[in-house]
Amino acid sequence: MADRRLASAQITAAIIALAAVTPASAQQAPAAAGTQQAPAAAGTQQAPAAGGAVTPLDAVTTTATRTRAISGDVAAPVTVIGREEIERRDARSVIDLIQDIPGIESSGAPRTTALQPIIRGLGDERVVLRTDGARNNFNAGHRGRTFVDPDLLRQVEVLRGPASTLYGSGALGGAISLRTIEVEDILRPGAAFGGTLGAGWQSQGSGPRGSLALGARAGDFTLLGAVAGFTNNNFTDGADNTIPFTGDNATSLLGKLGWNPGHHRFQISALRFRDDHQIPISANTATTTGITDRDTVSENLSFRWSYEDPANPLFNPQVVLYRTHVDLTEQRLTGARVRDRTELTTVGIDAQNTSRFGLGPTRHALTFGTEIYRDEQEGRANGVPRAQFPSAEQSITAFFIQDEIGLGNFTLTPGVRLDRFEQESPDGRNDRDSERASPRVSLAWQVTPWLQPYVSYAEGFRAPSLTELYVGGQHFPGNSFVPNPNLRPEVSRNKEVGANLRFSDVFQGGDRLRIRVAAFRNDVDDFIEQTVLRTTTVSANVAEARIEGVEAEAQYDAGLWYAGLGAAALKGDNRVTDQPLASIPAHRVTLSAGYRFLDHGVVVGGRITATAEQDRAPNVAGVAQQTSGYGLLDLHAAWTPNFAPNVRLSLAIDNVFDHAYRRANWNSDPSPPFYDVGRNIRGALRVSF
Questions:
Q1: Positions of the region Disordered (predicted)?
Q2: Which of 120, 296, 461, 673 is deepest in the core (most CB within 10 A)?
């Protein structure tokens, strides 16, 4: 293990040595190397719009195929949230941004840093999370995963369904790519220096927030520095109950140095997040016991290189070398006054090349590459090893290849990835290694200019986590964890059929309508489930689970006004016990609309969310058997004065009618003493200079 740590330290040292205006709906999306591409010239980053109207489904994505594509044209359900929507939401967490996407839910009680994404009923380590191309593998029992202030994000991409062909272990449910702001988001065209200054406040928790971003350009060099943060006291729910231990004091720092000689792009970036707060150990449950003073620190350091020459379509490499470190320090304030420390360090490299060429009547975009990374985790209690988060390591080596083959109006996209895992136990007696191939194939047919049906088959997998394999120690008084080094990887097989539709000049000249519908069935074998028995807690494989459902997205933009609809209906079952799965979200429909007073720079809009009753739950003690349906209304407005186009004022009201509701995945029996967050009035001011 010492040799491994030395190797990790050498890679980290190498990284350090290497380190010696927003568009309306479709963002200019530079991509971090490894899964993303460098900023291209304006006009190459978004679809041409009919009459200028562009919907969010016209935004550029690289997450669905690792190549640039219009999100509404790919044979995969991918949703892009651009900078304008991020600013409008004035969100305190990534989860706030994505939870309206069809098939997406957030797990846990409303504590900001403890929330985790659930995609199509699969959460925790079954969703791959990447920030600027760097993996974020941290997952430690109820403690959250998304550690970045949304004010530093320019784009969020969510790919639903198994994605292991491109992203390896953990992508059973899907993948989320976070992209931080670039100098191009800060500087005005032709400017050498500029910045943005933001301030805001919300009624929930009497919480102020602020941000400052500065950018500079000199020749081929660019420099960006940004800070964002917020603080708040405890929230209240729709019944005027205090939601305990929901206060935060969070700060994010971002720095980037870029060099763009010719067709090359080099970039060094560093991102740091810190939140100091009092919170339960099991923070994403409704518990109000086991309180700790937690200091959450997440650090990402990366070096990226890409090359793109239109005259050389065979050579388009992208490389990211990164180190991600998460460190949670917890001083327990109740019970035994233990000081816990939970750390995970991931060091890795992700490299790929895309070659575009023709062979006879076929067109090809051949993408191939490798991903190598190493996780080292360590848990300590009062300075000694903590068996509940065992000190262990794993190394992963992967190779992948995918070919987007065009023949007439058909696009066939086969791909496969091979992952090899080596996992090392604390005592060296239960080390293990395994391999897994993850294939995917899709076929899209452009029947007419407005209709593109598609079918796809994809496999995903998740290797057992180090904690699941080697955990030990006390779970709670009278109950102990039992390790299971014989766990098998989870494997999912997803069948999907869908259609992308595009229309122009529907109700008036220049408008644009985009629609995507999909139906899927995802069969998961060897699902890893944790079971709490009378005196022990153990993880074991469940033979088979099935999740199936339908999803729909529709987006319309006519310039003066716009509208969107998202809907999902999912069902999940344990096919061994014939019991429903606990993580499946209730059926939900979201309708949004807005109007732009172009002569005055004013935009007003709203959103209605209708969620059905969820009465399908496993017959397990502590799990609620029914969660009531609910409806929410949110309103928002923004003003960019014609006489001051560098100023933006915004106002929003969430949960206008102060409705008391709970999401099914954190409801329990007996019911928690509080509901989700009640009415929240938000205001913000942003000035660019």
A1: 418-438
A2: 120
